[in-house]
Specification:
6-stranded mixed β-sheet; Metallo-beta-lactamase, Chain A; about 375 residues; alpha/beta; 12 helices
Length: about 375
């Protein structure tokens, strides 16, 4: 017993004396590294290696399990791995995350070039709330951003990639002014190609580009016409939404020449003084048959919004916006309790929900 007590005292003395502790002796490099200056370079390198392994697994799983309604556990595991990688503060500055996003975007571009829609609609997800919807006659783009909102120049898509995406689209709808939804470089490419950009008047209001943007009336139940090239016409309703009091937010509902109706909510959120927006949200389905609804998954009452539109398909977005602080990057697992959301309830409800990751597509058959 005396021998054991003596050994314990020696161990404790070694751990708590002002000299080098056991933990410090394992830390070979205490200087800061890149991209996280609070970690050693060895620690940073480890996180890079781990991200690479996790994202390789994600790609393998997604290749076998594409987006579906009522997805299985395997696909869910892939999204959990994405949550783990991209909820690290410097994820957008790490090469594995950059390469993953660019690879997914390249895959989207290749599919856009070669894929035609017949009687169905094809939905692609680029990043954040950026969606592309193609029918037989038109290709609609909503809140397309190239990733510059992450604040990482290397994560953002190069100009050539954005140009290829824009070349495949006919029109861009921008919901509101925040830079994770309004990408000026992307909008400029639409305008350069003679394609309309629809946005609220708060978007770039003090910039020369403002005069080139189409500003439609924000009025519930007023159907407006938008002419595209080759005599194609879209029927539009621009609902007068809000992101609380920080921005006016266009909720765009578009009916294609084939009669497919698509709605995109941008960052619509209803709290406090903005609860009045439910006056029109609750009535949408009473007047329209909505095929596809693309809501922001972090909104406070997504279930009520979906009930208001009553769509045939729900495709949520806004997960993993890397420009947000870590706790505010909505994870695929939801974090509903902390964020006070009912996103999980929606996914368990009667509504068909398809959750996509960057670069994926889904075929909707009316």
């Amino acid at each position: 017993m005396k021998i054991f007590t003596g050994f314990l005292l020696i161990l404790l003395f070694g751990l708590f004396t002002p000299g080098k502790t056991v933990a410090q002796s394992m830390q070979k490099h205490k200087e800061g590294g890149l991209p996280d200056p609070q970690l050693s370079q060895k620690d940073n390198d480890y996180l890079d290696r781990q991200a690479s392994v996790f994202l390789d697994s994600v790609k393998t799983i997604l290749a076998v399990y594409p987006p579906v309604i009522h997805e299985g556990r395997e696909r869910g595991f892939a999204k959990l791995l994405m949550d783990a990688v991209f909820h690290e503060k410097f994820a957008a500055f790490r090469k594995p995350g950059i390469d993953f996003f660019h690879t997914q975007a390249d895959h989207l571009i290749k599919e856009l070039v070669k894929t035609n829609a017949d009687q169905d609609a094809i939905i692609w997800k680029l990043y954040n709330m950026g969606f592309i919807v193609r029918t037989k006659s038109v290709t609609l783009a909503f809140d397309l951003v190239g990733g510059a909102s992450s604040d990482s120049p290397d994560f953002a898509l190069p100009a050539e990639a954005m140009e290829q995406i824009v070349k495949q689209c006919d029109v861009l709808f921008i919901s509101h002014k925040h830079h994770d939804h309004a990408d000026k470089a992307m909008a400029e490419k639409f305008l350069e190609q003679g394609k309309p950009v629809i946005a609220p008047e708060e978007v770039w209001k003090d910039d020369p580009i403002f005069s080139k943007i189409t500003h439609l009336e924000r009025r519930a139940e007023k159907t407006q016409k938008l002419k595209l090239a080759n005599n194609r016409t879209l029927d539009l309703i621009i609902y007068p939404g809000h992101q609380l009091t920080s921005a006016i937010n266009n909720v765009s509902m578009v009916t294609t020449p084939e009669g497919i109706t698509v709605a995109h909510t941008g960052d619509q959120i209803n709290e406090g003084d903005m609860m009045g927006d439910f006056d029109w949200i609750d009535r949408v389905a009473k007047n329209h048959k909505v095929d596809i609804l693309m809501p922001n998954a972090w909104t406070t009452d997504i279930f009520r919004i979906v009930r208001g539109f009553n769509p045939a398909l729900v495709v949520p977005g806004h997960e993993l916006e890397l420009g947000h602080t870590v706790w505010d990057r909505l994870p695929y697992w939801g974090d509903d309790k902390y964020l006070e959301l009912n996103y999980a309830c929606l996914k368990k409800s009667k509504y068909p929900v398809v959750v996509m990751v960057w670069g994926e597509c889904y075929h909707y058959n009316p």
